[in-house]
């Protein structure tokens, strides 16, 4: 299975997302930077199996990319060989950090 990681520490907006996606997945030349185009290439043009994984998402990004998450989760159910997951960035416990410095 081909797993593609999209690291959200390097993503500020949708344009950044599509830039990173194009660097990691060979998309057709006619690909438009929009969610409909992404759904079209996943359902008909990309080689499967494919696992797309979003890592290090912030809570703000989780909200800003909600439409992406919903669409990709739907595509996972509808498309043979496609899977998707996402993970929030990990925060260290600041209280424990303070205890260690004292």
From TrEMBL:
Pfam (any one): Barstar
Protein's name in the database: Ribonuclease inhibitor
InterPro entries, sorted: Barstar, Barstar-like_sf
Domain Barstar (barnase inhibitor) intervals: 1-87
Similarity-based family: Belongs to the barstar family.
């Amino acid at each position: 299975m081909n797993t593609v990681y999209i690291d959200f520490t390097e993503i500020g907006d949708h344009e950044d997302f599509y830039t990173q996606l194009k660097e990691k997945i060979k998309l057709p030349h006619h690909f438009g930077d929009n969610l409909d185009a992404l759904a079209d290439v996943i359902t008909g043009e990309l080689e499967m199996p494919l696992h797309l994984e979003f890592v290090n998402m912030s809570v703000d990004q989780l909200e800003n990319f909600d439409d992406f998450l919903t669409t990709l989760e739907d595509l996972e159910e509808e498309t043979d060989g496609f899977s998707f997951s996402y993970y929030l960035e990990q925060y260290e416990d600041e209280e424990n950090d303070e205890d260690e410095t004292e």
